[in-house]
Design a protein that fits this description.
Length: about 130
Amino acid sequence: MIENVTNIPLESLLGHVQDMLFSGYRFITATSVDNGDGTIDVLYHFDKELEMKHLRITVNKQDEIPSISGIYFGAVLVENEMKELFGLNIKNIVIDYGGHMLLSDEELDAPMSRQITIVNKDKGGEPQ
């Protein structure tokens, strides 16, 4: 279990991140978790003098998420990664690789996002 997590609404993300910067926290990374119900948790991890703090937003997969890379430039790589691997709709990344930082056109879209499998019970329950 992660300690020092603050759940925040999507609309206040940039304000909270700006507060972390002004309070002297450094951005470490961000992580994503597909909840399997059409939502994704995005956790932003910060450190100051060995004290970790985390901000969590829960978004629908189609929600538009503002990039924090304008505040913490180091977020460029992890935001591109989350955009590409989880299919997150992150807008205004300072350097946006357009979904091709890690994956080629031939690879599965959002491979870390849970894929919906339709089971046809008429055919012995095999996925289609």
